[in-house]
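hey
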């Protein structure tokens, strides 16, 4: 029998051809696997029919984070090439980044548009702390974002195995992306068309919160025991209207794992902004979210463990095997599932 606390239990074999490298068009033509926990039944449909499966009296929560062109290429003074991936802002105009190419404390990296970065810290996990300058002067976050939007690339997940292109600028942002800060899209929301979103708004109470998805979302769980995994943290913010809706919600639909973690973190701590490091798994189940709309996730990831917190390990693997058998498309640009 599989042990839900062992990382090895969350492995599965996925044929390469089922990894989606581009989205389907229109977005709501993506397939949707619906799992009903009451009847323990699986239904195969499409996102276009999502409304047919949503229970009454739902409060719907979406993540309005916006993906930054966080991947930039520069050079050291010596001429050596450096690739830098912005992860998130820290305090005092410092930023957590990942770099490819050798750097040491004090290394200065030169980019286009007069942008430079100075390496301030080298962390054991391979991340770096840097400060950015424009023409030798410190810059604010939104000014940095403007420069990155000119010189940077969207940080598509590594499993797509391709460079970003112009079409990704539209495809890899949600319709309601508003607050810059993410290095990965909240992918469950990529399936919405304006019509589908309008239909949902007409029937349900719809609210937005923000969680800036960090690179840690792709970090595999290396520990043998899942509870030994050091969970990454991501900045979140819940506005007044969303908080009020959450407090009085009869039934909550979280669109995506990021929304799920934010809502569940608030429900446990009463915090409306800060760093969310909540790790949902079969030993730490949801207490507020009733329904989940999400994509299919990587083996041995904290995200597939989050799915197991809703339906259990064995049912998670059963659902995933069914999706593979039915040739669903997996990961960020892939198809989705609805747990009700």
């Amino acid at each position: 029998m599989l042990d839900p606390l062992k990382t090895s239990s969350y492995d599965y074999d996925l044929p390469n051809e089922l990894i989606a490298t581009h989205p389907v068009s229109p977005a709501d033509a993506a397939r949707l696997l619906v799992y009903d926990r009451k009847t323990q039944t699986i239904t195969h449909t499409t996102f276009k029919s999502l409304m047919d499966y949503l229970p009454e009296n739902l409060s719907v929560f979406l993540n309005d984070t916006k993906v930054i062109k966080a991947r930039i290429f520069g050079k050291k003074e010596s001429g050596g090439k450096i690739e830098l991936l912005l992860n998130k802002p820290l305090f005092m105009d410092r930023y957590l980044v990942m770099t490819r190419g050798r750097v040491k404390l004090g290394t200065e990296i030169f980019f286009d548009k007069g942008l430079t970065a100075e390496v301030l810290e080298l962390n054991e996990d391979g991340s770096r702390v840097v400060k950015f300058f424009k023409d030798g002067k410190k810059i604010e976050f939104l000014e940095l974002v403007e420069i990155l939007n000119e010189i940077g690339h969207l940080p598509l997940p590594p499993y797509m195995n391709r460079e970003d292109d112009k079409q990704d600028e539209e495809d890899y942002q949600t319709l309601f992306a508003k607050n810059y800060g993410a290095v990965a899209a909240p992918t469950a929301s990529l399936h919405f068309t304006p019509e589908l979103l309008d239909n949902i708004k007409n029937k349900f109470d719809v609210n937005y919160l923000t969680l800036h998805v960090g690179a840690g979302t792709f970090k595999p769980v290396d520990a043998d025991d899942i509870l030994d995994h050091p969970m990454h943290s991501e900045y979140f913010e819940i506005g007044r209207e969303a908080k009020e809706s959450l407090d009085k919600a009869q039934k909550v639909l979280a669109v995506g794992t990021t929304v799920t973690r934010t809502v569940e973190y608030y429900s446990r701590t009463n915090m409306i902004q800060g760093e969310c490091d909540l790790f949902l798994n079969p030993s730490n189940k949801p207490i507020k979210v009733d329904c989940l709309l999400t994509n299919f996730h990587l083996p041995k990831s904290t995200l597939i463990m989050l799915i197991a917190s809703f339906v259990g390990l064995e049912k998670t693997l059963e659902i995933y095997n069914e999706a593979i058998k039915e040739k669903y498309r997996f990961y960020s640009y892939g198809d989705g599932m609805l747990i009700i």
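The first helix runs from residue 141 to 151. The chain has two domains: 7-67+167-339, 71-152.
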